[in-house]
């Protein structure tokens, strides 16, 4: 069952998401990486984690790790969305209009909600068997 095509697809999408996560981390550490680059990477990460989440939901993961793995993918998807909203908000805040500042505030408020949801999903991941911290 662990070698089924759907499992491979979900795991490859997860690997792509984690790879882009590493790229985003490198961009964050780089003084040359612009906000636009960071937003593009975070949006790409959202796409991969979303696809991984869609694929993993349809799999019969009854090996004891299935539910935990689903929480992990969901958690990473939410974090990716928060990063994308954050960088989008920062880009909007660079605008010189009242409207752009208002949209930036709305984006950053969305980030706050996503981080609350991320924390809940992280806690669910940590309390799902097998237990971890």
From TrEMBL:
Q: Fetch the Gene3D superfamilies from UniProt.
A: alix/aip1 like domains
The protein's matches in InterPro entries, at most eight in alphabetical order, are given as: BRO1_sf, BROX
The source's domain of life comes to Eukaryota
Q: Which PANTHER family match?
A: BRO1 DOMAIN-CONTAINING PROTEIN BROX
Q: What is this protein called?
A: BRO1 domain-containing protein
Species name: Coptis chinensis
């Amino acid at each position: 069952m662990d070698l089924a095509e759907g499992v491979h697809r979900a795991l490859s999408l997860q690997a792509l998401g984690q790879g882009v996560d590493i790229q985003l981390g490198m961009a964050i550490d780089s003084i040359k990486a612009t906000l636009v680059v960071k937003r593009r990477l975070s949006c790409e990460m959202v796409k991969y984690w979303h696809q991984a989440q869609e694929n993993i939901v349809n799999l019969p993961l009854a090996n004891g790790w299935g539910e935990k793995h689903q929480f992990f993918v969901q958690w990473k998807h939410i974090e990716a969305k928060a990063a994308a909203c954050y960088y989008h908000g920062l880009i909007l805040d660079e605008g010189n209009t009242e409207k752009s500042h208002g949209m930036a505030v709305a984006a950053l408020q969305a980030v706050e909600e996503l981080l609350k949801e991320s924390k809940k999903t992280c806690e669910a991941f940590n309390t799902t068997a097998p237990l971890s911290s």
